[in-house]
Structure formats: structure tokens, C-alpha cells
Amino acid sequence: MSLPRTCHALAASLPLAALLASPTTLAAPDPGDWQAVVEEARGQTVYWHAWGGDGRTNRYLEWVAERMQAEHQVEVIHVKLGDTAEAVSRVLAERQAGNDDDGSVDLVWINGENFAAMRDSDLLFGPFAEQLPHFALTHPEHNPEVVTDFTLPTDGFESPWGKAQITFYYDSDELDTPPTSVAEIKAWAEDNPGRFSYPRIPDFTGSTFLKQALIELSDADEALYAPVEESDFEAVSAPLWDYLDDLHPHLWRSGRQFPASGPDMLRLMGDGELALAFTFIPSEPAAAVADGELAPSTRSYVLDGGTLGNVHFVAIPYNSPHKAAAMLLADFLLTPEAQAHKQDLAVWGDRTVLDVSRLDDDQAARFELDQDNPAMLAPDALEQTLAEPHPSWMDALQEAWQARYVGR
Amino acid sequence: MLRLAPWLITALLVGPILAGLAMAALPAFGYLPALGGDSLSLDPWRDLFAQPGLARSVAISFSSGIATTAVSLTVVVLFLAGASGNRLDRWIRRMVSPLLSIPHAAAAFGLAFLIAPSGLVSRALSPTVTGWERPPDLLIVQDPWGLSLMAGLVVKEIPFLLLMSLAALHQIDAEHRVALARSLGYRPTIAWLKVVLPSLYPLIRLPVFAVIAYASSVVDVAMILGPTLPPTLSVSLLTWFNDPDLSRRFMASAGALLQLGVTLAALASWWGLECLVRRLGRGWMAGGQRQRGERRLRIAGKALILLAAITALVGIAGLAINSLAGFWRFPDGLPQTVTLQHWQRALPSLGGPVAATLMIAGTATLLAVGLVLAALENEQRSGRQPAQGQLTSALTLLYLPLIVPQIAFLFGLVVVMEALGTRPTRWLVIFGHLLFVLPYVFLSMSEAYRRFDPRWSRVALTLGATPNDAFWRVRLPMLLAPLLTAMAVGLAVSIGQYLPTLLLGAGRVSTVTTEAVALAAGGNRRLIGVWALVQASLPLLGFIIAVGLPRLLWSNRRGMRGTP
């Protein structure tokens, strides 16, 4: 206690020292002293850079903003990104310009290769995540996925927010038995030309399809979980390119054009252009049926042997001027209230990162899924989750795909 | 004070563009110390030319610049040549301003909804005519040749060129020329083409160049209607600039220079085309042929311009239907259920962007109008009017922002701002919009101002009024109608701006346009319908006020209500 007081006395007696010391008052708040964080956050504005391509997600973020204003007097502004890479590029550009304490990004929705890139360049504030009061509810000791991001440990530099897993869906009026493996998809597409596609790379849902296919097609699974430089990329990825070369002529628009994103594929399903599609948000088809965007005969399933799933996070850039409010927001996102609202089919339908089995009964009840909805996945469908490969594979696959299929 | 106005305008417009181009040129040759580039090299260019599909991107950007302009100009010329002032012609002329006010992005969305394989046209014809039970697997929207992109641009550029031509026609006494030619036995359309067009074209040359520059470098329309594998050069540039690998910014800068080169090449080719047409046309013009083709040309002009106007209007109606649609299975012509849900859900999030849009557009327009009035008033008082149709004043530079592709200098401008440590703010965005609002306000204001009968002011002065009195109490009230029209144009231009808002506002400043374009990737037609409709209706409000207010204020003075 004596040290701050001495500083204070010095600062009061020496105006110059006060000036010099002023940067230290901007020093990062200590997540260990939560009460101080809450107090400092009051009245701050958080610029939350988050992908804005999905209306349901955007509406949930609006709800979060309302709740944060009401509960903590923190203003939350959703800066809608087309691609999370834009936020990474912005923070990096700010550091290059010498802007180390007044950046424009306070919180970023992130995972995978973007997290890896920001960690590599020391662009993140932390560790803070494990000290958030509600983080304990995720029980990382039983759920290692909430502290692992594409094989990399998060080390407390990002806080878990939700779970995604590749889920396929189809119109049961048109299709009796959907294909249940990547190989079967090709055979099915040959019989039903023009009725399947995947989002244009580098969209993250599309890139995940490449990884899903690579995991099933290659025998070199171990190599996929280590940096790509450590293996022979050409050799490991060769089966994927053979597969795609065969598949593309049978895709929607004969593979000369691809949907822009996961939600764009959903629109094409609603229009009847596609008969089979997939999403990263398992409950999205059911929610879309409720909203009149998909036919009531829509059904969801996962491939045999499981599909890729991952956790998505929020992180705080090192030069955010509003770290306290950003941490408070990250913590609010982990409250049972916010997580249950997020999982609500009528809202977004993104699965919780909390360990529901270890919540008390009242709170756990809020997370019960509406299994009556026929478009929902069977309850045990998500038991088999394939882990994400090392993030470097994402970049390598995206680059190779573009070199192969763009401009031909 | 007034004397400074032209110079202030010039500095305001030319400064940022030159600074932006310089900051694109230096990194293009490897020099950008903030990113560790401190020596000159050609590596950025090597990286650029190694990009997959670059040649295709360039070809699409170039041909979109030429083809869009050629088609739009032909349609406008044929329509004007065949126009005889009947009811249909008057209706088309009256539609010009509302069509012009539709932002490019909203028109593009409307067209996409219309012509997509599952769009309105296909639904209307299915399954009765086409036999399609489900949408055909046809690559129409975002086709690799950029045809849908060009169609979307043509729909928007026709009203622009038509408005510019109508303004210019006042200067050349077209009716007398046609009457003279007709007395020599020429049919009206042929007469117009032979005696009016050659004098009209030089007057609308700058707007034509602006269309070429715009169509070869547009970003928002290209994101909605343009090809994707690869996209146009301008859209690729945006991706490279936002890449987390900052070393790509060197390549993006080289790309920005390449874009400038592509636009200049398109302008140069157009100039070549002009020479060719002039040479080929001379024989036809002097050949004495008085009738041939009259009917066909007249009908073609009317049909094509009607097609464009109806496409735009039906597209907007399509947006409205989509914004109210429940589940809507193909090939139903109309949704099975109608719901207000999309509007209700969007309503809470509309407020912020609508307010920001109006605030930015209002401020930029007021600033622009102030500067333009000062410059024009200075012109009047100093008696130095540029000869009609001649572009001799310093204000010629006013058109620079319309000729230099936005994307080429805005990136450099962002780098300058970052280096200066300027935080992205609303003021920066307003300043960015001003660059584009100013020229358009000037374009639409200057004609009326210069044609204003100088005797009114002289009478005021002889009655003892000071020049300022004459301005505030005579000239300004009498010019209220064109002034309000110029303001409506300014608002429409600002509301439609996508790239300056995105780049200078760093994504933090969201307007209805950035929100609507951001939704494009999501593909949710219902939500896009809501936003695009809001985007289209804001500028329309401006035009309604511009037409209505003078009638209300001057209900007792018929001559001052402005021409509808």
C-alpha cells in the first residue's frame, strides 16, 4: 500500500513528474483486481470488431450492447467486419505507426490462424482470460478445448465465447439419404450435378470444408497437427486436390463460381438452388426454418466419423485504450445469462462454452435444447468432434486453392 | 475573401489526391519506412504480377469502363435524338432525378434480385414458360465476364448522362438547329444526330470521362454484381490492403498504381474511339442521307431507355417484396407468407447508421454548397466567366476526384493519416465525402448560376443595394430551386459513398451504405431488402424536398418554382 501513496505524493509535488507519470495511469488494468476493473470500465466505450455477415449474430451483439449499458454503463459498439483479418491488419498497422496506447480495436472475435498471427506478433493483451470471474464455469480441466485454439494453447490471451461444428443439412423432401462422408459427397454430386457447393476460399466455412476433406482423404493426420513447414505440403495435400479437381465440375455453377459464405449457402438452399449444404453453427438450419428462410422439411446431420469443430474466442489487442471495459465484456459473455441467450434458437443458436453438467440445476435448465424441432441435430450427433489442424495449414491450403482455382 | 474560394476548393481537392497518390507510389516501389521498407525495389510489382488471375481482373476492369460508358451514352443519345416531347418522353425526363438518386449499391442489389436464376424474372416465367421447377444452374449474377456488373452500372449511368445532357442542351439551342435541318428535309431523329450531337458531345465529355473512371474502378457494385474468381482489380486491391500480412501493402500500392493505369488506359482508348467515330461519322453526316434508319433509331432509343428505367424500378420493388417475405419457395412469384419481422428486427439497428448517414451527408453538402456559391459569386463579381463549354479556369481541377479512381488515392490517404497519427473520426469521413460531393454540387449548380440574368443584380445595385445585399436578397432567393436540387444531388452522392466511409472511418463509422454492402456477403435477401430500401429512400427524400419546397415557398410566384 505504501508504494502508490509515495508515488501520489511525489506526483502532487512535482507537476512534471505528474506529466511523465501520466502514461502509467493508462497502464493496463490488472484482471486480478476485479473490483478495480469494474470501476474503471464504467463509462468506457468498447469497439468490438466482429464478423458482421450474419443477421442473427448481429442481433445477439445488439442485445449484449443493451445489457452492458444497463448493467455496467459500458457502451458496446459492434464494428462489423467482412473478415477478421481486417482487425489484425489494423492493429498491426497501428503498431507500425507507433500507436501503442490508443488503438481503435478494443475487443476482437477471433480464433485459429488470426489468433496465431496476433500472438506471433505480440499484438494481444494478457494473460487475462483465466482471471475472469465467470471463466471457472467452463471447467477447462474437463474441457481442454476452451483453452486450446487450433492446437495452440491460448495461455489466457483469449477468452472462450462459443462452439462451432460443421453440420450438414438438406431438404428431406428432395433427398432421402444424404451422403455421410466426403467421398460419398462426390459420388452424390456426380448423380446430382449443380446441387452442392462450398463457400469461396478464403471464407472460413469454406476453408473448414477443405480441412474436413483433407483429414478424411489423407493418411497423414499427424502431420496436420504440426506446423505445415514440418511436412511435405505437396504430398500431404495431393489427395485433396485430386478430389476437388474431380468434384468441381459437378458443383453448383460447375465450380466456376462459389457461394460467398455460409449464410449465402443457406440462402441458396432456401431458393432451392442447392439440395445439400453445411454450416458452422449446428442449430442454424433449425433457426432458419423458424425464420422462414428454409423449408420446414429441412434436416441436419453430421458426417460419419465426426466433423471439424472448434471454439471461438474474444481477445483484447495490446493497444486497446479500454481494456477494463473489454475484459468486463468478455466476462459478461461468459455469464450463464449471456450464454443461454446466445444458445437460444430464436436468438442465435451458438452452443455454450460453459460446462452445463457442472452448473447448478436452475442454471443448467436454461441450456436445455428444444429437441422437438425436426430440423435440429440428434442430441448425440455432436459427440464426435474432429480437432482443428495446426493454424498454418489453413493459410497454406487457402493459398494453394487460390493459385489452383482463381483466374482459370 | 470570396476571391480565395476557387483556390480553397482547388487546394482542398487536389491536395489530398496528390498526397494519396504519392503515398501509393512510394510503397509501390518498396519505400515505406513504417513497414520496414527503406530502399527502392521492384519486388511489389513482381508480387503483383504473380497474383493468380491478375490479367483477368485487369481485363474486366478495363472493359467494364469502356463497355458501360459506350452502352449508356448510346442509349442516352438515341433517346434524346428521338424524343419529341410526348407524354412518354416527359415521363422519362421526370424519372431522371429519382433514378439518379438511387444509390449504386441499392440498384445493384435490385438488379441481382431481378436477374438471378432464382430472381423475380425467372420466378415470373417459371414454370409456365420455362418449365423450371427449380432455379436453373446458370451463371448470371457475378458472371466471369462481368456482364451483370456492366448491366448494373449502365442502369445507373444512363440517368446521370441524361441529366448532364439535358443541362448542356440549354446551351446550344438544339430546337433551332433541328428546325433548320428539318426545313432541309431531314427527319427529326436523323437531324438531331447530325446537327445537335456534334455540338453536344464536347459539352458532356467530362461527365463521360467520369463514367469511364467510375466504371473501371468501382468497388461496391463490383462486390455485389462483379465476378469473383478473380474479382475486379479494385475489389482485389481491397482484400490485399486488409491482409494481416502487412507486407502485402507494398503489393496493394503497386496495384493501386496499376488501377490508375487501367483507368487512364480506358480513357485513352475512349479518346481513340472518339477519333474513329469522328472519322467514320464525317462521311455519314455530310452524305446528305435524310431519312434512312429514322424509325429504327427512334424506337431503339425509347425501348432501351425504358428497359433501363423499368429494370431499376422493378429492382427496387423487388427489394421491397424481399424485405416483407416469409418463406418463398421457387418458383412462386410471390412469397407464401408476408411478414413485418425483418423490418421489426432491423429497426433498432437502423437508427444509428441512418443518423450518421444524414449527419455526414448534411455536413458535407452544406460545406460544399457554401464553397461552390462563394466560387460562383466570385466569378460573377470579377466578371471572369469561363467561356461556355470551355474549361479554362482553375476550377477545372474540380473534376479530378471524378477522374482519378477513388481506390487509387484513398489507400495512400489512409497511410498518410496513419503516419500522422490521425484517429479515424466522423470528420475525416465528412472530409472524404466532400471530395466527391463538391464536384457534383458544382456541376449541377454552375449552369443555373451562370445563366442567371445579370440584370436582376444590376437593378438591385442601382437601387442602392450592396453586392452582398444583391446576393442574399435577390440572387439566392431566385435561385432557390436549382440550389435545392444541387443540395439533393450532394446528399445523394454522399449517401452512396462506400469506399471513403469504409477506409477513412476505419469501419467505425457505419452508414446505411456500408451496412448494406456488408450484408452482401451474408446473402440474406430479406435483410438486404430492408437496408437497400432504406438506403434508396434517404436520397429520394432530398429530391422530394428539393422539388416541393420552392413550390411551397413561391406558391405566389410561378416563375420561381423551378422546372419539374
UniProtKB/TrEMBL annotation, chain A:
InterPro entries: SBP (IPR006059), YnjB (IPR027020)
Pfam families assigned to the protein according to its UniProt record, in alphabetical order: SBP_bac_8
Signal peptide coordinates: 1-27
Keyword annotations: Signal
Protein name: Putative thiamine transport system substrate-binding protein
Annotated organism of origin: Franzmannia pantelleriensis
TrEMBL record, chain B:
GO BP: any one term: transmembrane transport
Keyword line: Cell inner membrane, Cell membrane, Membrane, Transmembrane, Transmembrane helix, Transport
Principal subcellular localisation of the protein: membrane
Membrane-related topology note: Multi-pass membrane protein
ABC transmembrane type-1 domain: residues covered: 54-269, 354-546
Gene Ontology, cellular component aspect: plasma membrane
Segments crossing the lipid bilayer: 54-81, 102-125, 145-169, 250-273, 304-330, 350-376, 397-421, 427-445, 479-499, 528-554
InterPro entries (alphabetical): MetI-like, MetI-like_sf
Cross-referenced Gene3D superfamilies: MetI-like
Family classification: Belongs to the binding-protein-dependent transport system permease family.
PANTHER family listed in its UniProt record: INNER MEMBRANE ABC TRANSPORTER PERMEASE PROTEIN YDCV
Protein name per UniProt: Putative thiamine transport system permease protein
